[in-house]
Design a protein that fits this description.
The complex is a heterodimer.
Chain A (H helix, E strand, L loop, with lengths): L2 H12 L5 H13 L1 H18 L10 H61 L16 H7 L1
Helix pairs in contact in A: 1-2, 1-3, 2-3
Chain B lengths: L2 H9 L3 H23 L2 H17 L10 H43 L5 H17 L3 H11 L5 H8 L3 H25 L1
Helix pairs in contact in B: 1-2, 2-3, 2-4, 3-4, 4-7, 5-8, 6-7, 6-8, 7-8
The chains are: A mainly alpha, B mainly alpha.
Chain lengths: 146, 187
C-alpha cells in the first residue's frame, strides 16, 4: 500500500470504521512504514483530545444576568417608543410654536414702530420751512436788529 | 417539569418556568457554544443571548421538534454569527501573523518539555483545523464529536437529510485529517 493512500484512511482506522480487509492493510503498512506510523500516533493523540474536552460548569448567576439583560432590553424598548413620539410629534410642535411666537412678536414690534411713525406724522408742523428765510424775517427787522 | 409545561409557563410570562428552563438547559447551551467558540467567557456571553432569544421568541416555537433541538439550533447560529462578526477583526491579524505563527509553533515545538504544553499545541492545531472547515461540515463535525449527538439528532438540528449529514461528517474528517497530517509532515 502506498503511503498516500494510507494517509487518507488513518482517521477511519483510528476510529475502527474500516472493513476487515482495509483494516488489515493499514495495520500491515503501519508495521512496515515508520513515517506513517509516527504520523498515525500524532494524529491519534490529537484526535483523542476531542474526547477529553472539558465540560464547563454551569454558572449559578446565569439566570440573574439574563433577567438583568431582559429588564434592560425592555427599558430600551420603552425608550425607543418614547423617542419617536418625541422626535416625530413633540419636537415639530415645539419648533412650530417657537416660530409662531417669533413671528407674532416680530409683527407686534413692527406695528408699534409704524404707529409711532404715524403719530409723529400726524403732529402738525410747528415750524414752517420756507424756501427763503426772508419770508419769515423781513429785511427791515433784520437791519434794525443789527 | 415537562418541556411543554415550561413553554406554556414562559408564554404566560411565568418567571419560575423560565428559570427552570435556564437551569435545565444551560449546560447544553453553554457547552455547545464552547465547542464552537473555544472560549469560556465568549460561550457564557452567547449562552445569555441564546436564552434571551428563547424568552423573546418562544411564541415562534411550534413544538414540531424537541426543545433541545431548537436550543441547539439557536446556540449554533448565535455562535457562528459571533465567530463571523469577530473574524473580520481577527482575520486581519491572522493574515498578518499566520506565517510567523506557524513558524513559531514549529520552532517552539522542539523545546516543549511539559506535557501540558504539547497538549495545548495539539488542541490549538485541532481547533484551527476545525475552524478552516466549511460551515456545514464544521457544524456537523462539532456536534458529532464535541456534543456526541447522533447523526439523526444532527440532521434535525441542521434540517438536513441523514445522508447529507453522513457525507458532511465524512468530508469533515478527511479535511481535519489532512490538516493535522500536513502539520506533522512539516515538522
Amino acid at each position: 500500500m502506498k503511503c498516500k493512500i494510507a494517509h487518507k484512511k488513518l482517521i477511519f482506522y483510528s476510529a475502527g470504521k474500516l472493513n476487515d480487509a482495509e483494516n488489515e492493510e493499514i495495520k500491515t503498512h503501519l508495521q512496515t512504514c515508520d513515517n506513517c506510523h509516527n504520523l498515525y500516533i500524532e494524529l491519534k493523540s490529537t484526535l483523542i483530545l476531542v474526547e477529553k474536552k472539558k465540560t464547563l460548569e454551569p454558572n449559578p448567576f446565569l439566570y440573574t444576568r439574563i433577567n438583568e439583560k431582559l429588564a434592560n432590553l425592555e427599558s430600551e424598548k420603552d425608550q425607543a417608543v418614547i423617542t419617536p413620539v418625541y422626535k416625530k410629534v413633540l419636537q415639530p410642535i415645539f419648533f412650530t410654536f417657537l416660530l409662531a411666537i417669533g413671528l407674532f412678536s416680530g409683527v407686534k414690534l413692527g406695528n408699534t414702530v409704524i404707529i409711532d411713525y404715524q403719530n409723529k406724522l400726524s403732529v402738525p408742523h410747528i415750524t414752517a420751512f420756507y424756501f427763503n428765510d426772508f419770508q419769515q424775517e423781513k429785511l427791515e427787522v433784520f437791519l434794525l436788529n443789527e | 417539569m415537562k418541556d411543554e409545561l415550561l413553554i406554556k409557563g414562559i408564554l404566560k410570562a411565568d418567571q419560575r418556568c423560565f428559570k427552570e428552563l435556564v437551569d435545565k438547559y444551560q449546560s447544553l447551551v453553554l457547552n455547545t457554544c464552547n465547542s464552537f467558540l473555544h472560549s469560556k467567557n465568549d460561550a457564557e456571553d452567547i449562552t445569555q443571548e441564546v436564552f434571551i432569544e428563547v424568552y423573546l421568541s418562544i411564541h415562534k416555537f411550534r413544538g414540531e421538534a424537541k426543545l433541545s433541538t431548537w436550543l441547539y439550533r439557536i446556540s449554533v447560529n448565535k455562535s457562528l454569527n459571533f465567530i463571523r462578526n469577530n473574524s473580520k477583526i481577527i482575520k486581519n491579524f491572522e493574515n498578518l501573523f499566520a506565517a510567523e505563527q506557524i513558524n513559531k509553533i514549529l520552532d517552539n515545538s522542539s523545546l516543549y518539555s511539559d506535557i501540558e504544553d504539547i497538549q495545548d499545541e495539539k488542541i490549538e492545531l485541532l481547533h484551527k483545523s476545525i475552524n478552516t472547515l466549511a460551515k456545514n461540515q464544521k457544524i456537523a463535525f462539532t456536534l458529532s464529536k464535541f456534543e456526541n449527538l447522533s447523526y439523526v439528532q444532527i440532521s434535525e438540528v441542521m434540517n438536513l437529510s441523514l445522508a447529507s449529514v453522513e457525507g458532511l461528517i465524512h468530508r469533515a474528517k478527511m479535511n481535519v485529517q489532512k490538516k493535522i497530517l500536513n502539520f506533522y509532515k512539516k515538522k
